[in-house]
Amino acid sequence: MVEPLTPSDPRRIGPYRLEGRLGAGGMGQVFLGTSAAGRKVALKVIRPELAATAQFRARFAREVEAARRVGGFHTAQVVDADPEAASPWLAAAYIPGPTLQQVVTAQGPLAPEAVLRLGAGIAEGLAAVHNCGLVHRDLKPGNVILAADGPRIIDFGIAHALDAGPMTHTGAIIGTYAYMSPEQIRNPAQVTPAGDVFSLGSVLAFAATGRGPFDASTVPAIIHRVTSEAPVLAGIAEGGPLYTLVRHCLAKDPAGRPLTSEVLYRLAVTAPTAPPPVPSLPPATPPLPATPPLPAVNLLGGRGIRRRSMLFGGLAAATAAVAVPAAFALWPENEPPAEPKDKPKASKNPDRDFTKPVGELKGHERDIESLAMSRDGKFLATGGYDKTLKLWDLTVRREKLTYEGHTDAVTSVAFSADGTTLYSGAFKELLTWDVNSGAAKEKLASYKGEFDYVSCLAMSPDGRTLAVAVGSRVELMDPATGRVRETLEGHTGSMNWVAFSPDGKTLASVAADLGKSGVRLWDTTSGRSLKILRDGGEKNYSQVAFSPDGKTLIANGPGIQLWDLASGNLTRKLTDRHEYLGAAAYRPAGTGTGGKAIVVGGGTYVETEKADTVGRTVSVWNADSGELTATLVGGEQQILRATVERLVFTPDGKTLAGLLVPAANESGAKPSIQLWQLP
User: Fold this and answer.
1) Which of 81, 217, 320, 449 sits at 20 to 30 Å (Cα–Cα) from 645?
2) Is the pTM of this model over 0.70?
3) Is residue 623 part of a domain?
C-alpha cells in the first residue's frame, strides 16, 4: 500500500514529485513519484550513510548501468537515475498490482493452468535479463508483480553482470535463502543464469502449492534442505508437465538444469493460450489521491520463513521493492549420522512417563523465534513472527500478557535479573517492557546498519550487562541506560548465539560463518578476545552454553562438541540420529540434578517411518559418560515432522521448555512450547 509522506521526507527527488512511501529496506527508501508529464515511477533512494562511501557509490553506479540494460515485456524498466546525487536514486516504471506473494498468501495457490501461464511470463522476463549478460540473483514471490498485462519481475537493485567482480563484502550473500540455488549459498560470487532457473523452479512450486519447496522454520534448516534434500512438491500432480519442469529446474547440479530458453519453450508449449484473470485484492485502507489502489496484505505470508541469521526486515512494496542483502553462510553438508551406540532408557516410573510433555503453550499466530526463562522459573517469555512478545505463567501453564509494539518479528528476548523488565530485539531495534503491566518502557537502542537485527540477547549473572548480538558483532550494554561500553568484533557472519559463563567474566559467541571465526571467548570486563575454539572443517554452530561449573562449553550444530575451557581442547563429540542439532542446553545444577545432563533438540524433518523416533525429539545425554540416557518426544501424535529448536530449563533443572516447530507440510499444525518434567 502507499503510505503518506512523513514530515521529514523530501517532496522532490530529481525531476520527480513525491506522492507517498512504497516501502523500505536495508539500502534505502522507496517512494511513489510523478514526472512532470504525470507518469508514475518508483524511486529508490539510497540511505545517506551508504551514499557517503565511495565504494558503495561505485557499486550503485554499476547496478544502475546493469539495470538500464534490461528490457522486455515482463520486467520493470529502469527509466532514470542519478548515482552522483547527494542521495543517489534510481527510478523504475511503476507497476500497479499485487505481488505473487500477496496473492497466494491471501487467496491460496493458483490453478495449474495459471501457474503455467505465470511461469511463461517469468521465464520470458528472465530471458531478457540473461540476454543482457545479467543475473537477477533474488527471484522470489515478492519480486513478481501480477500486473494487468502479465507478470513483471522487479527489483534489479542487485542484478549482477556476469563479467563483473564481487560487489559485496567478504562472506555476504545477496538473495533470499528459501529461493536461492545451492551454489549461490556456498559461494556468493558463483552467480550464473542457472541460479535464476533454480529460483524460478522454487517460485513456481510456491505458486502451485502455497509454500516454498525448501521451506523450514530456521535458516540452517532452509540451507540444509536447499543444499542436501529433495524439494517438497506435494500438491503438484506427479508426472505432469509442471511437476517435471519444476523438478528439472531444482536440480542440485547447475549443469543438470534447463536453459532459460528451454524453460520458456516448454512453458510456451504447455501453457494455456488464454491468459488467466489477474488476481485482485481489495485495499485495507483508502489509497492516496490520484494513486492506483494497492492491496494491504501481510507480505511475509502464511508460515513466514524465520529470520535467525538472515532477515533484515522492511516492507517489500508492490513495485520496485528494495532487496536486503543477507549475510551469513552455509550449513555444511554431512555424511549420514551414525546410529547412537546407547539406546535411551525407558522411564522407571510407570505412572508418569517423563519422556512425554506435561504441558503445551499455544497462542502465537505465526512462527515463534525466541524464548527466555525468568530466574525464578515462574515465567517464560516468547517472541514471534506475529510481531508480539508473550509472557507465560508456568505455574498455571497459560498466557499472562501480550506485549505489542514491534514493527517486525521478535527475534530475541531476555529477562532482567530481578524479573521486572523484559528486553526484546527485532530488526534495527531493542525495546524494554514492564513485566507486570505489559507497558512498553522505552526503545533502548536503534540500529542503522544494513545487516543490523538483534539476533540474540543474554543477561549477565549479576544483571549489570546485557549482551546484544546485532549484525556480526556483540555489544556489551548497560541494561538500564542502553550505553554500550564494549563492542566485540571478529565474527564474519551474522551472530547466532551469545552466552555468559556462570561467573559472568567470560562471554561465548558463535556466528553463521562456516566456522571461520569459531567459538569465540571474550573477557567481559575489557572486551578482549581470550580464545578461539575450532573443530576444523566448514561447520556452523547454532548455540553455545557453559556447564554449571564453568569448566566446559558445548556448541551444537552437526553434533555436539564439548570443549575443556582451561586447555581449549575438544574433549568429546556427541552424535545421534539427527542430521544436525538446532538446540542444546546444560541442565542446571539444581537439587538432585548435579548439572550432569545435556539436552539436545533435533533439527531434521524426517521420513514417516522414522518420524516417531527422530522427529520432534530431544536427546538427553550424561555429560560425564557421553551416554544417551533418554529421548523426550514432543507434539501431538499426528504431528510427525517437526523440529525442536530452542531449549531452556527452569533454574531448579526440573522443567524443560522447548520450541516445537512443525514442518511446512504438516497441514494445520502450529508451533508451540513443549514442557517436560524431568526426574
Assistant:
1) 449
2) no
3) no
The tens digit of pLDDT for each residue in 617-656 reads 888 888 888 888 888 888 766 666 677 888 999 998 899 9
147 lies in some domain: yes
Cα separation of 373 and 391, whole Å? 10
284 secondary structure, DSSP code: S
Place of cell 533438540: 601
Residue range of the domain that includes 41: 12-270
Element (H, E) at 647: strand 642-649
Per-residue pLDDT averaged across 470-486, rounded?
94
- Nearest in space to 383 (alpha carbons), one of 358, 360, 401: 401
As a whole number of angstroms, the distance between CA 462 and CA 33 comes to: 53
Question: What CA–CA distance (Å, rounded) separates 96 from 98?
Answer: 7
- CA–CA distance from 35 to each of 15, 43, 80, 211, 262 (Å)? 7, 11, 11, 39, 39
Where is mean pLDDT largest: 139-143, 220-224, 258-262, 325-329? 139-143
> Is the residue at 479 inside a domain?
no
Partners of residue 188 on adjacent β-strands: none
Catalytic residues: 138
The total number of structural domains in the chain stands at: 1
> Who's near 637: CB < 8 A, 6+ residues apart?
none
Nearest to 601 by CA among 619, 614, 622: 619
Helix (H, G, I), strand (E, B) or coil at 142: helix
Please, are residues 215 and 222 in contact by the beta-carbon 8 Å criterion? yes
Residue 310 has pLDDT above 50, yes or no: no
Can you tell me whether residue 495 is helix, strand or coil? strand
Any idea of the CA torsion for 178, 147, 66, 328, to the nearest 10 degrees?
-20
417 strand-pairing partners: none
The more confident residue out of 645 and 330 is: 645
pLDDT of residue 640: 60
Q: Which of left, alpha, beta for 566 (phi over 0: left; psi -120 to 50: alpha)?
A: alpha
Nearest alpha carbon to residue 360 among 49, 639, 5, 565: 639
- The three cell numbers locating residue 445: 537502542
E-assigned strand segments in 347-483: 359-361, 368-373, 379-384, 388-393, 398-404, 412-415, 421-426, 429-434, 440-446, 454-459, 466-470, 473-477
Look at strands 519-523 and 529-533 and give their pairing: antiparallel
Q: Residue 119 pLDDT > 80, yes or no? A: yes
Judge whether residue 408 has pLDDT over 60. yes
Residue 538, Cα to own-chain centre: how many angstroms? 20
Taken in order 230, 236, 237, 243, is the CA torsion positive or negative?
negative
552: pLDDT confidence band, cut at 50, 70 and 90?
A: very high
On the question of pLDDT at 582 being above 80, the answer is no
pLDDT digits (tens, 9 = 90+) for 234-280: 889 988 889 999 999 999 988 889 888 888 878 866 655 544 444 54
Q: Identify the residue whose cell numbers are 544494513.
A: 450
Kindly report the backbone phi and psi dihedral angles of residue 49, in degrees, each rounded to the nearest multiple of 5, phi listed first: -65, -30
Answer whether residue 228 is part of any domain: yes
Strand partners, 373: 380
Q: Which one-letter amino acid corresponds to residue 675? A: L
CB burial readout 439-471, b (16+ within 10 A) else e = ebeeebbebeebbbbbbbbbbbeebebbbbbbb
Q: Which of 95-99, 152-156, 553-557, 597-601 has the lowest mean pLDDT?
A: 152-156
Q: Does residue 93 surpass a pLDDT of 90? A: no
- For residue 539, the tally of other CB atoms under 10 A from its CB is 19
